[in-house]
What we know:
single chain; 206 residues; alpha/beta; Rossmann fold; 6 strands; 43% helix; globular
Amino acid sequence: MDRLLVLVRHGQSEWNLKNLFTGWKDPGLTEKGIEEARLAGRRLKEHGLGFDMAYTSVLVRAQHTLDLMLEEMGISDLPITRDQALNERDYGDLSGLNKDDARAEWGEEQVHIWRRSYDVPPPGGESLKDTLARTLPYYVTDILPQVMRGKRVLVAAHGNSLRSIVKVLENLSDEEIVGREIPTGIPIVYRLAADTTVAEKTDYAD
């Protein structure tokens, strides 16, 4: 039984490029982001990986990334589930602001706390802890059971929603997950043991 789970953060978005807080806003991919997504698909194909189903968020940048990966793999009929449980962390009042402008308004230290603490949300938004409280139940009830049945599952989502899943998969502490970065367009490949723990992990970076 394969028990394959592959996580991919979407390619670079237009707002990543502009250094803006994005959250639940819905910008598209840049040309670089499109190529990152295509490269992710090519890497998966080169390693001989196929999939039975895919999950993504309701945001365009993640859905487009998934579509491009599947195109590169030559897959056209995969069942895809889209759910806002996999959306990026909601940055609330920071959404759409340039990160340097936010530092100028609220101060370097406060913005750093909002961005890098585990449980302090920005005004009107979510902390990483809040994001995990939204994403993790969906992973446990919807995604993980499919993997444990031997389905090969591909998830295209966002830095913070994927960090929520990685925290559980790799049994990371609150402090450890805050420091974990999920790079854009790099497939993280997990094979799970019968007890749902990670038996093997690889990533397909250059």
